[in-house]
Amino acid sequence: MDLLADHLVRARATEAVFARTVAEPPWGLRLGGSTQLSVHTVVRGRGYLWLDTPGSTVELIPGSVTLVRGGPNHYIGHEPGAECLEPEEFRARHAQIDPGENPQATVFLCGAYQFSGDVGSGLLDALPQVMTLSAADDDSLRDVITLLSRELVRTELAQQIVLDRLLDLLLVLAIRSDFRHSATAPRWYRASADPRLGAALRAMHETPAHPWTVPELAAISGLSRAAFARVFREALGKAPLQYLTEWRMTLARDHLRADDLTLAQVADAVGYGSPFAFAAAFRRHHGHPPGNWRQRERAAADTSLFTNTHPADKQ
Questions:
Q1: Superfamily for the 239-315 domain
Q2: 191-217 pLDDT, tens digit each
């Protein structure tokens, strides 16, 4: 069990909507904050990305990738502060440009990821608002950026499949690179590399429904019960069984939002002996019984889908 892989799989970050764009100066594109994670890379030329906040401008050049976490709007253009169009108007203005006709044109890729549930939200919350990674930072990242750049400047059979896979790789490498070097990486990520805690954490994530006890987890870690509880609290900021309960509740919320499992099946999946025990634990954590919580969340999701159009769907 690899904890980062487990989070990515549960977050269902497996598909991207993307667009390859060629634009002649002057150009600018506004992208709304409803996209949970945007990925931008320049294949040829250069551009700039900025938020509404002062001092947020970053340069986009070949060989680098910039990720933007959802929330505020962001903008990309030929120069900082350029006039930016909405996606539909931008596409209409730049749709007919051939990159071979104008060496001054910028060729760039915009990708958009949607994550699922609280596991995905937890991954995103651990990332900075804007993160730029250079191919020089990581050999694997450089290889993927090189392949992506080559694929984007030509038209080949099955190109969509190749680009989908490369974007998935790019996302995983970017998150892994940031977590490896960031002081704000999730505690579970740092603790998973601790030889005293890694095995116990992997066990809890791999089989959350198991009736784990502190002595059992301590034995997996090769520590005494007291030493394990102390080291775990220092690393994770909470007691082992509190961490386990919160992880079970996270999984339960994602099941209730996305699956058609009955409450009894959800209870069994997250380690409660009966739907009554699960309902009581869920109510303690959320103030509502799981059935009512599920109805409210799904109604809110239906309303959101009806009233909002994902900006990347138009790319």
A1: Homeodomain-like (1.10.10.60)
A2: 999 999 999 999 999 999 999 999 999
